[in-house]
């Protein structure tokens, strides 16, 4: 018997992975979670049937969502992570000695529990004493947080369907801005552009951030298991420009070994293809 | 009835496109060629069952294989294209007024014939009087070409299996070097690294070029229909460095509108992820 997992990357594009074993299936009050052991990508976590993270290519996503802002402000001390229940983002943050504290607000305890059991290479730092893990609604959490608390907010969310929806709203971003220090940076996973399904979310997240933050840029990475293999992140900031203020020498002097990220790639990640730049300026793409 | 085309991106990864209509199927002495009309990617040409080109994402490949070397030496006059039977590479080359002549050597006439009939947006310049279209073996052609003839050679080949095999050999690259002028640049499609199937070819092409050309670099682009969505190109040159000698102002003054390429992205395309840099230095990748 052959077992295959298939995700519809668009209505007429299927991406399928051959499965060794279906290790876990669970339903929380928020979503359905499955852990599959795949031949090519190692262990895979899906939420409501969509790939969240795989052991083989998670390094791309977590390098880009953590080290990009940290190389712009390596002096970050207090971090808020929204989502990120698999633990990959916290794992990368914990490599910075000067980070004093991380609040991680994951709405769904099941995600962390499953990651702790099945994805130990991701969840390995979730019990670090510098990390406070809160199983709460991120929207409510930022609303109730005091002003000027965090130097960095990382929105490591699902797509804006289901529990992730509130993390793509103007109200949420406004509260994020309020609770960031004057050096504050926000990064988010900003969807993608090759397929219509994610274009609108990518555009909306970007245009909402632009109304609130003076500096908003988009950057890119290659994540093979995400639709089209081309994924975007948002970088929003109160004062730091991600290129002009990149502290390459300082970051490199930390000696962190990273599999995807490096400071040359940092600059390249913000150099978007012409059609992507136009999309964020004009709101449309004509492919065919 | 639903019709789906599936390519195995690796032994345990399938990529499938929903098909409106199977427009053409032909067998030449070299390979099997099919044209499918797909919902998401428009018309698709496959050779021996593998995606060569789709109407939706061909702009990425052709922008990167043509404009990258042209922005380093916008004074290119004589070009040799090996392969490239769909016409996309020649179409982009014909946008440069100062290019005087292109020899295009495609081993398989069927590729050009099918492109002319089914992919007019790609093949539209194949009859340009500046283009000499030769249905010959590229390996033999370069062997028999005189010294110092071309300013630019573009190897727009299939994978090194079947008819493309000879285009990945030291002898072939040595002849390419010989027939290039002292300003000569060679670019090739250089496979990819996320899946084992293409890793060896990527590495070999690169290491063979390094034995022959003083400057050899690798650059990257996002091509959703190619395995992993992450694809590499090789840039080999007798004297021009692709970054130091990039003539951004001069290229931008030409006013070419390109959907993927721009001169900032040019620089970013050469900023490889750390694991890719290490792969080309050490010859191995550890993902899991």
SSE map:
The structure is a homodimer of 288-residue chains.
Chain A: E1 3-10, E2 13-27, E3 32-38, E4 42-47, E5 50-54, H1 58-72, E6 78-83, H2 88-93, E7 101-105, H3 109-118, H4 120-123, E8 131-134, H5 138-144, E9 150-156, H6 170-179, E10 180-189, H7 196-212, E11 215-222, E12 230-237, H8 248-253, H9 263-269, H10 274-282
Parallel strand pairs in A: 6-7, 6-9, 7-8, 9-10
Antiparallel strand pairs in A: 1-2, 2-3, 3-4, 4-5, 10-12, 11-12
Helix pairs in contact in A: 6-7
Write structural notes for this entry.
Two copies of one chain form a homodimer. Chain A is an alpha/beta fold and 288 residues long. Chain A folds into two domains: 3-52, Spermidine Synthase, Chain: A, domain 2 (Roll), CATH 2.30.140.10; 58-282, Rossmann fold. The first copy, chain A, is 32% helix and 31% strand. Chain A has helices spanning 58-72, 88-93, 109-118, 120-123, 138-144, 170-179, 196-212, 248-253, 263-269, 274-282; strands at residues 3-10, 13-27, 32-38, 42-47, 50-54, 78-83, 101-105, 131-134, 150-156, 180-189, 215-222, 230-237. The first copy, chain A, has a seven-stranded mixed sheet, sandwiched between helices. In chain A, strand 3 (32-38) and strand 4 form a beta hairpin. In chain A, helix 6 (170-179) crosses helix 7. Chains A, B: S-methyl-5'-thioadenosine binds at residues 31, 106, 137-138, 163. Chains A, B: Its EC number is 2.5.1.16.
